[in-house]
């Protein structure tokens, strides 16, 4: 499972539909072509019985200030994408995979961004990733 996770994360910019398929296979869940970052946040917030105001009061930004309900509303309507720190906080509060949220937001998780992989490793992983998703 870790290899599939790594493959999905390395290829984050290629094709979001294929990434959603990999994320579905890796982390489970029920996805449709209409799953967006904002819709997922909204659905999970509602499932917890929280208002936007309640969730916003629990999510701190990098500067320590809490996000506003209007900012959360913009996130849920896919008008804004939050910082990585806010994504991590939302993942924890809503019991979601931080990696999957980063992918839906069109980002690489922070721990993979800092050039840890060599060119040959990326090439090898991309080949394996493409073989896996083409099945």
Could you give a quick summary of the protein structure above?
This protein has helices at 2-10, 16-27, 37-47, 52-56, 69-76, 84-94, 98-104, 110-113, 119-133.
Q: Please, could you describe this protein's structure?
A:
This protein has 9 helices and no strands. By secondary structure, the protein is mostly helical.
* CATH superfamily grouping: lambda repressor-like DNA-binding domains
Tell me the CATH topology. 434 Repressor (Amino-terminal Domain)
How would a crystallographer describe the biggest sheet?
none
Would you tell me the overall average pLDDT? Answer: 80
Q: Give helix and strand order, one letter per element, not per position.
A: HHHHHHHHH
Q: Kindly give the count of domains.
A: 1
Q: Any key phrases for this structure?
A:
single chain, mainly alpha, 135 residues, 434 Repressor (Amino-terminal Domain)
Give a topology summary.
Layout: H1 2-10, H2 16-27, H3 37-47, H4 52-56, H5 69-76, H6 84-94, H7 98-104, H8 110-113, H9 119-133
């Amino acid at each position: 499972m870790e290899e599939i996770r790594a493959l999905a994360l390395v290829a984050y910019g290629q094709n979001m539909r294929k990434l959603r398929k990999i994320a579905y296979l890796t982390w489970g869940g029920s996805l449709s072509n209409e799953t967006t970052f904002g819709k997922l946040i909204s659905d999970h917030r509602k499932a917890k019985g929280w208002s936007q105001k309640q969730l916003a009061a629990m999510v701190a930004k990098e500067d320590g200030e809490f996000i506003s309900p209007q900012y959360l509303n913009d996130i849920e309507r896919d008008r804004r994408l939050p910082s990585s720190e806010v994504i991590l906080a939302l993942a924890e509060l809503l019991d979601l995979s931080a990696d999957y949220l980063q992918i839906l937001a069109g980002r690489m998780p922070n721990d993979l961004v800092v050039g840890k992989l060599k060119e040959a490793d990326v090439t090898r992983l991309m080949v394996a990733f493409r073989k896996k998703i083409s099945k």
